[in-house]
Amino acid sequence: MGESAYSFSLTTFSPSGKLVQIEYALTAVNAGATSLGIRATNGVVLATEKKLPSILVDETTVQKMSMVTPNVGMTYSGMGPDSRVLVRKARKSGQVYFRQYHEQIPVAQLCRETAAVMQEFTQSGGVRPFGVSLLMAGFDDNGPQLYQIDPSGSYFAWKASAIGKNMVNAKTFLEKRYSEDMELEDAIHTALLTLKEGFEGELSGENIEVAVIGDDRKFRVLTPAEVQDYLQEVE
Amino acid sequence: MSIFEYNGSAIVAMAGKECVAIASDLRFGVQLATLATDHKKVYKIHDQLFIGLAGLGTDSETLSQRFTFKHNLYKLREERDIKPSAFAQLVSATLYERRFGPYFCQPVIAGLEPDGTPYLCGMDSIGAQEPAKDFMVAGTATDSLLGICESLWRPDLGPEELFETVSQALLSGQDRDCLAGWGAVVYVITKDKVIARTLRGRMD
Question: Which of A33, B35, B58, B90 holds its CA 20 to 30 A away from the CA of B6?
Answer without folding.
Answer: B90
